[in-house]
Design goal:
This protein has one domain (15-266). The protein is built from three helices and 14 strands. The longest helix has 18 residues, at 231-248. It is α+β, with helices and mostly antiparallel strands and 269 residues long. The chain has an eleven-stranded mixed β-sheet with strand order 10-11-12-13-1-2-5-7-8-9-14, covered by helices on one side. Strands 3-4-6 form a three-stranded mixed β-sheet.
Length: 269
């Protein structure tokens, strides 16, 4: 399969997705930002090809990807982990699984969210696992999949109850609305947060990660360094800067609750 294909068979190549991260808050004070960003699209059947394409795998490198940043977080292979999770949730996704994730830059990693796109053998997307990290060192998975097992259509909206604390300026209540586009040449993950308060006629927060997919080559990886060498530190700095802005706008602050007991929350029926 070519890197731009959307089929579910093996043979896909890792790719580079370059675009932007957008975040917009509507109330009680408006706050919005957009900044350039990139991520990797890694078909797990081809994760061993990363070094040949200029990405260090499980070893130090200017741009690197480490298995221990995902899944079981113990450095074990990622494909058995996600297959086990899908089997436990009775999701029939026996085709390619693509991980959309930020790599490490200069050895540093902070990954607010990574997406595992899980396909069947015909290429249909049966589930998306959103792997979320907060700045307190905690993580949680949201499994987006239809209860009846049918494929997820591009642009379709699916919901999951919010159970995990991410921002001190949002309560743990309400739900997320997920929407994806899986076209081979474009990636979009849109996540809107609805807090469920009376009069909630739209999302409190709208967030998206989007970009164009292009081949991952050694030359493309070298070109990332001048533009994104401080990418990881920039993500952390932006999170804290936006927190200062919200505090200055007197947005209410909520203390961190205990994390959820279960590691994965499935789509709300």
């Amino acid at each position: 399969m070519r890197s731009g294909s959307s089929r579910g068979d093996t043979g896909a190549l890792p790719a580079l997705v370059e675009g932007a991260v957008m975040h917009r808050r509507e109330r009680p004070a408006r706050n919005a930002f957009t900044y350039p960003a990139f991520c990797l699209r890694i078909p797990l059947s081809a994760i061993g090809r990363l070094p040949a394409l200029g990405i260090a795998h499980n070893r130090p490198g200017i741009v690197s990807f480490h298995d221990r940043d995902h899944g079981a977080r113990d450095g074990s292979p990622l494909l058995p982990w996600i297959r086990s999770l899908l089997a436990a949730e009775r999701v029939d996704a026996d085709g390619e699984i693509e991980l959309y994730a930020f790599p490490r830059m200069l050895g540093y990693a902070f990954k607010p969210v990574s997406f595992w796109v899980c396909r069947d053998r015909e290429g249909g997307v049966r589930a998306v696992l959103a792997e979320v990290n907060n700045t307190f060192g905690e993580r949680h998975n949201y499994l987006v999949a239809h209860a009846d097992g049918r494929a997820i259509a591009a642009g379709e909206t699916l919901r999951a109850r919010k159970v995990f604390h991410v921002s001190p300026f949002c309560e743990v209540r309400g739900h997320y609305a997920f929407r994806f586009h899986f076209d081979g040449g474009r990636w979009l993950a849109r996540v809107d947060y609805h807090d469920g308060r009376p009069g909630d006629d739209g999302p409190l927060l709208a967030t998206s990660v989007s970009g164009r997919v292009r081949p991952l080559t050694r030359a493309a990886v070298r070109a990332l360094l001048p533009r994104y060498r401080w990418f990881t530190l920039g993500v952390i700095a932006r999170i804290h800067w936006q927190a200062v802005k919200l505090w200055a706008k007197r947005v209410p602050f909520f203390p961190k609750p205990a994390p959820p007991a279960l590691p994965t929350t499935r789509l709300t029926p």
